[in-house]
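Quiz preparation item.
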């Protein structure tokens, strides 16, 4: 919570100083980038250098199951397959999950996801405008927004009040936020309607 990482600068510094940078773009896949390639891949201009290991999820906005790792060379991929075998603590995707992944990939390639992206960012901008750009992450290229509270108790009470008003959200506590404080986390989507967003914004701005 609280912004986006400058992955391009991290990759450059890693290359300059002989280090490596591991980027988990689980929440950026599909919602960002042409064809849904994600926040990090777009920020890196599609240039995955040897010092970068980029991974992402197919189980979140992609709408499927599993994940992927993007590396610089075939040799890197061989090392991952040998040393970090995902089947050690899991199993191969089942046939229905594989079919869902294939259908989602088709939607990414045929322009369907691009249209959903446009609606998503319109909704995010709508929420920011309706709340006076006061929320956590306001103005950032993320669909996650939040409202902070000075105590955990106040966070819980606000969350219960929102639930009673028909809004389900996630209360977040330490170590995600400072000890003793709290945050209500909202995940906006392309499926939310303007009326729903206005309803949430009105409730949030009325929350003490």
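Solution:
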């Amino acid at each position: 919570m609280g912004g986006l990482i400058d992955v391009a600068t991290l990759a450059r510094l890693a290359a300059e100083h002989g280090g490596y940078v591991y980027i988990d773009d689980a929440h950026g896949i599909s919602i960002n980038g042409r064809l849904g390639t994600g926040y990090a891949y777009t920020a890196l201009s599609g240039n995955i250098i040897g010092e970068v290991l980029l991974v992402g999820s197919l189980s979140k906005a992609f709408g499927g199951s599993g994940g992927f790792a993007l590396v610089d060379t075939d040799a890197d991929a061989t090392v991952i397959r040998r040393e970090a075998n995902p089947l050690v603590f899991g199993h191969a995707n089942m046939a229905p999950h594989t079919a869902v992944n294939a259908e989602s990939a088709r939607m990414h390639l045929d322009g369907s996801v691009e249209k959903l992206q446009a609606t998503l960012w319109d909704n995010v901008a709508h929420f920011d405008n309706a709340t006076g750009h006061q929320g956590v992450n306001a103005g950032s290229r993320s669909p996650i927004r939040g409202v902070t509270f000075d105590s955990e108790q106040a966070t819980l009470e606000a969350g219960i009040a929102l639930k009673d008003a028909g809004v389900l959200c996630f209360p977040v506590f330490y170590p995600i936020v400072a000890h003793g404080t709290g945050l209500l986390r909202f995940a906006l989507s392309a499926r939310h309607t303007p009326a729903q967003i206005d309803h949430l914004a009105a409730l949030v701005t009325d929350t003490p």
